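Record format v2
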Amino acid sequence: MTDTFWVEIVSADRRVWEGEATQLTAMTTEGMIGILAHHIPLIATLAPGIAEVTASDGTRHLVAVDGGFVSVTLTRTAIISPYAQLAGDIDVEAARRQLRELAAKREAGDNSEATTMAYLSAQAQVKAVER
Amino acid sequence: MPANLRELRERNRSVQATQKITRAMELIAASRITKAQSAALSALPYTRELNRAVAAVASYSDVTHPLTTERTSPKRSAILVITSDRGLAGAYSTNVIKMAERLTQTLRDEGREVVTYLAGRKGISYYQFRNRPVVKTWSGFSDKPSYADSDQVADELISRFLTEDPDQAVSEIQVVYTRFESMLIQEPRVRRVLPLHVVRGDQSHEPMPLYTFEPDAATVLDALLPLYVRNRIHFYFMQAAASELASKQKAMKSATDNAQQLIENLTRQINQARQAQITQEITEIVGGASALTGNEE
């Protein structure tokens, strides 16, 4: 039996998921990070992408993340991301549409940071559903 | 007085109809407050985690960041005034606007230039009517602000604060909003959102662990502070929304009570008029009858 740890995934307006987990993977700005129980305290910036948490009962939850942080303390691990969404809660059609619009914007030469971040966030949402 | 009686009855009916409307609005506002309060409650975990992270980073690194640096020049302040989109909320918007006017005056007395941002249609029409210059306005979400809504506002304010252009730059940003103390008390407040004042010192009960930062503390802080500011602004919007609904409920309750009193008075008048009419008719009949019998004899 592997050790478990308490995970909270919070978005700006609600708690997206919380529970005992055996593993959490997320995409930081430095690359993929995997967190198991007894990880050292850490605060890392997240890149837009997919976070995956394996609950203690073995179910896996995918969460689309638009940036933010992962914070690990001795008692709890939290993903703090303003627009985090569980794969099951994502409106795929809206996300795809947004992705197309933003892709077109990028094609047209808009390479601003805001557009890129929004593009990557939309991409993460679509990917989270498709996986 | 048959005409008068009819008039009174008509007025009574119209007051009753108004009362139905105000009562419905009171109930709607009441149910929305519950929603606003649960929205505020479900935003708490995010705020808590964010505050904890800021405290953690602040205790490890020197907090020197453009968003926290005090500036002495230029002598220009930006204010954001949060009002409601709709009326019928008592003095809610008026109180905020009054507060904003006072703040503007104080800032001007200090020799500062004031640039104004507005949220909510009531504030917008107040400033438009007086032909006051306004930089940017937002409306349509005053009673139910989502994070995405307040994020737009935060985007604008943060970029305004960080701008280098000397004609545009501001040295501080203040928000005028209404704090929700309780269902009975809502108070207009002024809060400075930028530059941030980071209070070091640990208020949390658990000791701060030895964090590792990735990539490093400065980068983490860089990403963290804008989120913190956005969250503050969202918080002010949620407070304002709860206050707006509470004011609306209060205003509609007193409107309903007033209508009730009007109805009671009108009913009394109607009864009096009807009684007077009956008395007059009896007098006329008796008078007529006695005139007839008098003639026969």
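The two ends of chain B are 34 Å apart (CA to CA).
Chain B has six helices and six strands.
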